[in-house]
Write a structure and sequence with these properties.
Elements: E1 16-18, E2 22-29, H1 32-44, H2 49-55, H3 59-71, E3 82-90, H4 91-97, E4 104-107, E5 118-120, E6 129-133, E7 136-140, H5 144-170, H6 175-178, E8 187-194, H7 196-206, H8 220-236, H9 238-246
Parallel strand pairs: 1-5
Antiparallel strand pairs: 2-3, 3-8, 4-8, 6-7
């Protein structure tokens, strides 16, 4: 879904509901060559990125070095790259994102622009029922009645909250005050920039995969964002990505 501007949504527009998390890769300087370039300065001294890219032709040698760095957790060579993502997600997802103090964030501000009536509602395949206690629980599918209840209540409260927001704006109340009635499922957008080492740390905590050394139990919505970021990572740095998985998805 393209980014909307304030002019795209008329005042008093009807609420819109989505069940997706959108992630775009908008800028990057990231390849397996960047890891080789950074690592080989330890043994070869000054080296150009061009020479590292030439060395990358020897795929088995390059993979061996990257695997060694990953396996023995020599992490700094994985920091000499950059990926910037544009993310559209409900605010409660951004709360979880910003627990990761290993990235740079810039989010749209409800102080400086009027927010659009776009809200998250869980899709029908979203598990709803928690079974077990904190630290040892599973989420299971809800009944059809529970699924309908969640959707209906989410739509009702979101619509009512946005109507209150608009009434305050119409009365001349400042945006930064009027926004306090809006629920956490309203969509926001942000740019997030991180390097591969930080991204691997994020993925290790926000995706649930078989064969990981340290199992993770992420909330589904942030996992949806992480899965899309992981897809871009796999395309940009295939050797690094492969060795990340081979070594138990532990960030070096």
């Amino acid at each position: 879904m393209p980014e909307q501007t304030e002019n795209d949504v008329p005042r008093h527009a009807d609420a819109q509901f989505r069940s997706d998390i959108a992630v775009e890769l908008v800028r990057h300087s990231a390849s397996d060559s960047d890891v080789l370039f950074a690592a080989r300065v330890s043994t070869q001294g000054e080296q150009t990125l061009e020479s590292a890219q030439n060395d990358d032709v020897d795929a088995s040698r390059s993979k061996g070095l990257i695997n060694y760095l990953m396996r023995d957790r020599h992490g700094s060579p994985f920091e000499h790259n950059s990926m910037t993502f544009y993310v559209q997600a409900p605010i409660f997802v951004f709360r979880e994102f910003m627990r990761h103090r290993i990235a740079s964030y810039n989010e749209e501000s409800g102080r400086y622009r009027e927010l659009n009536p776009v809200f998250y509602v869980p899709g029908p395949d979203r598990n709803l029922v928690q079974v077990g206690k904190p630290g040892a629980y599973d989420f299971l599918p809800g009944t059809p009645e529970q699924t309908d209840l969640v959707a209906d209540e989410t739509r009702r409260i979101s619509t009512e909250a946005f109507a209150s927001y608009q009434r305050m704006l119409d009365a001349g109340v400042a945006r930064e005050v009027a926004r306090i009635v809006l629920p956490l499922n309203i969509y926001s957008s942000m740019y997030v920039t991180m390097n591969a080492r930080s991204l691997m740390n994020f993925l290790s905590l926000r995706t649930k995969r078989e064969g990981t050394h340290f199992p993770s139990f992420p909330q589904r919505e942030i996992e949806m964002a992480a899965e899309k970021m992981e897809g871009f990572f796999e395309e940009l740095m295939p050797i690094t990505y492969e060795t990340f998985n081979q070594n138990g998805r532990v960030a070096p």
